[in-house]
Amino acid sequence: MTETDAVVIGAGPVGLFQVFQLGLLEIKAHVVDSLPYAGGQCMELYPDKPIYDIPGLPICTGQELAERLLRQVAPFEPVFHYRQVVTSLARQPDGRFLLETSTGTRLLTRTVFIAAGVGAFQPRTLKVEGIERFQGTQLFHDVGDPATFADKNLVIVGGDDAAVEWALNFCAAHADRHPHKARRVTLLHRRDVFRSSDESLTQLRQSFEQRAIDLVVGQITGFTEAEGKLVALKVTDPDNVTRDLALDMLLVLLGVSPKLGPVADWGLDLERKQLQVDTEKFSTNVPGIFAVGDINTYPGKKKLIVCGFHECVLAAFGAAPLIFPDKKILLQYTTTSPRLHALLGVAKTASD
Ligand code: FAD
Description:
It contains 7 helices and 22 strands. It is α/β, with parallel strands linked by helices. It is elongated, with a radius of gyration of 24 Å. Flavin-adenine dinucleotide binds next to helix 1, helix 2, strand 9 and helix 6.
């Protein structure tokens, strides 16, 4: 179990800026996100699209904003716990909170900042009864370590960018793309229409023509197991004919969808699936638990990144007295405060 002063649930833009504001007040944070990377909606839903309403940044993409925020929080050395969902949050007898995640991480903290946005982004899974028991051995919902699929008879399910890119990456005919190659790659999608860059789509068509990648159109309707192993999928094509498709590994890349899930079960006041907060500290009804960004609601709430950023400042100042009860919490400017310069690791300027 790790003890800390603050846990931020969600590494979206608002969760990241919360880490920064906590850092300025000398509060170290652990951050948990279900995704394998930071950025929340910006990275998952619109990484290449331009944002025009971040103050002082006339234009930047979702991905660029996430990268800039990560650079901004770096001096405070937050500890990120990716690929895990915070599943439980319970108050302890000493007033602290115990958070547990889907992968077994346990964090004991004085304060919690819920920056969960529209919910935990989780991979869309196959709706085939019983197949989930192969999860982590033969069934995967993200690539993780690509070496897992090397020299295997690999079936990739999906029609979007990720499925197309990884089918090409694992295909031996595209040596320059990726070091790990599968023995055989089959791309399985419910229709013969794929979404990716023009260049990748051209490569994919060529790979189908050259039989470097097999294309199977249809839906998985069952599977065959032998000696505890997944040996074949039953795939039903658009003409309702079902065939066996042999495989070693199944990589399902059907994208992600947000699930509010556990946040709704923590006894916090909700209004239409959003956490109710005050606008002085952005505290929930439980002292010590704050909520910022798209997950919260209050009169006049606007689901904009800039509004979430403002909320982070007041939440950090709201939390500081709980962590440092004997310390006077001062508002200082990053331009002029030597203390903040030291925290940020920036050189002294003449004005210091
Ligand atoms: P999110 O970005 O949703 O991040 C929340 C994170 O928390 C996610 O990564 C999620 O996986 C994680 N999480 C949730 N619950 C858990 C849990 N239990 N355990 C672990 N992890 C969890 N806003 C603007 O201001 N300007 C724009 O131009 C703009 N354009 C947009 C365009 C599109 C297409 C969309 C969809 C939104 C746009 N927005 C824009 C809105 C903006 O993206 C959101 O306001 C912002 O992302 C909210 O940030 P957040 O950090 O609160 O939540």
